[in-house]
Amino acid sequence: MKLKFILSAVGLTLLFQAKAQVPEAKIGSFDQFADIGSPQIKGSASYQEPSQTYLLSGSGSNIWFNQDSFSFLSKKMNGDFILQTQVKFLGEGHEPHRKAGLMIRSSNATNSAVIACTVHGDGLTSFQYRTNAGENMKEIKLEIKAPDMLQLEKKGNTYTMSVAHFGEVYQVEKLDNIDLGDEVLAGLFICAHTTKFSEEAEFSNTRIFKPAPETLVQYKAYLPSALEIMDVKTGQREVIASNEGSFQAPNWTPDGKTLIYNESGKLYNFDLKSRTASVLNTDFADKNNNDHVLTFDGTQIGISHQDASNNGQSAVYTVAITGGIPKKITEKTPSYFHGWSPDNQFLLYTGERNGDYDIYKISKDGGKETQLTKAKGLDDGPEYSPDGKYIYFCSTRTGKMQIWRMDPDGKNQTQLTFDELNNWFPHVSPDNKWLVFISFSKDVPADKHPFYERVYIRLMPIAGGEPKVISYLYGGQGTMNVPSWSPDSKKIAFVSNGIY
């Protein structure tokens, strides 16, 4: 396994905090900084750890008409990609039309063809574009005011701008048939809208994703993956490790020291202090998927292993958290493990029986399984609340995949979400106050949770209510299939895919 781990905070601070005005200086994920149009006041850019944020300052008269004057932190890119950030102006500002945002342009020439996702100081939000060098800029004005979540995607000659206030779903605009060339410059920009002053903006949660090509066959080929930690209150994310292979489904151990994830059929312990990984010994069970869950006391882990003795179908096993020989729990297959009871006496799993997927409960010692759901459609992702009073799960029984709750004996099954997204894998915070889950687009089939989609991670009160988006990412299968809360209920761990 080849891992590319993030350097220590001290090392990265020394490496990246110095402001750069050199055109080819590498700053975080970007490889050049330029003052386009030679503004009188030079701009600067810096990248800072451990917050993983960018700070841009710049002058410049405008990004408009047939030429531009501003400051631009960029990277040379080919093919399709998604550029994403969270932006905040710093200071009161001198001009209501100071601008910041995301940009893709053909070159650093002042009159270059360009696509820009632009937020103004007064809140005006526009999709700006110049289709050919030297032409006047055009724009599409959006109704939303002062969004802070910005995304700009290139797919062939189609460009998609997605914007939101943090906590809300994206509002989207598209431009078709715009050719900026095979190689473009993509990145972050700031423009003061005046030559007399410089302005500053902070860019956080900045990511460049290379999405999966249409020819990719899922489960046969994989995109690179990143292991991330996020503060659920602020949405601030931190990439703690990346890998050319497929990290999937991180658990957080009860002592707060370790994440457990799966990759290529094996489980790994990731030490959060040293940021190193080691194999969790599961002996013969070397075809584990992303349905692994720890007991509430952290002494055992349940796994779903696809063994040859089960005709390659998944069965549920348990093993000590220190490793060892797994004990087989379910005889019927396929069975996909999802949760322990708080007293460690019962296991919850999804099983396919007679062509339908339902939720089952079984003793930790095995034996006869108890069927808890019987509705037509897919019921999946069951998980006990920490107090043992409820089981949360997801179900397609009303059309879209939605979040549900039931009593431990399967009674009083109650729907909790009612929107147009497909909501999967509810996870209850250790303090029993919140649910976090992953939401797929309505265009994804309700009974599927594929890799490599544009997804949201959302948060809602345990009793129900309006879900709030806390992360915007490229991921899906393997992002957050298992309980991933930190023990103090302040953070979650998850996987994103295709980070460039």
For the largest beta-sheet, the strand count, sense and barrel status come to: 8 strands, antiparallel
CATH superfamily of the largest domain: TolB, C-terminal domain
The N- to C-terminal Cα distance equals 19 Å
CATH topology of the largest domain: Neuraminidase
Radius of gyration: 24 Å
Record field, number of beta strands = 39
Give the CA-based shape.
elongated
Roughly what is the average pLDDT, rounded to an integer?
A: 94
Overall domain count: 2
CATH architectural name of the largest domain: 6 Propeller
The computed structural class is mainly beta
β-strand percent reads over 45%
The helix fraction, in percent, is under 10%
Number of helices: 1
Unreliable spans are 1-21
Determine and state the CATH class of the largest domain: Mainly Beta
Task: Describe the overall structure.
Helices cover 2% and strands 48% of the residues. The chain is mainly beta. It folds into 2 domains: 3-209, Jelly Rolls; 225-497, 6 Propeller (Neuraminidase). The strands form 8 sheets. Strands 2, 5, 6, 8, 9, 10, 11 and 15 form an 8-stranded antiparallel β-sheet that branches. It has a 7-stranded antiparallel β-sheet with strand order 3-4-16-7-12-13-14. The relative contact order is 0.11.
Mind sketching the topology for me?
Layout: E1 3-5, H1 9-16, E2 32-36, E3 44-48, E4 53-58, E5 62-64, E6 67-78, E7 81-90, E8 99-105, E9 114-120, E10 125-130, E11 138-141, E12 149-155, E13 158-164, E14 171-175, E15 183-191, E16 199-209, E17 225-231, E18 237-243, E19 248-252, E20 258-263, E21 266-271, E22 276-280, E23 293-294, E24 300-306, E25 314-320, E26 327-328, E27 335-340, E28 346-353, E29 356-363, E30 370-371, E31 379-384, E32 391-395, E33 402-406, E34 414-415, E35 422-428, E36 434-440, E37 453-461, E38 468-475, E39 491-497
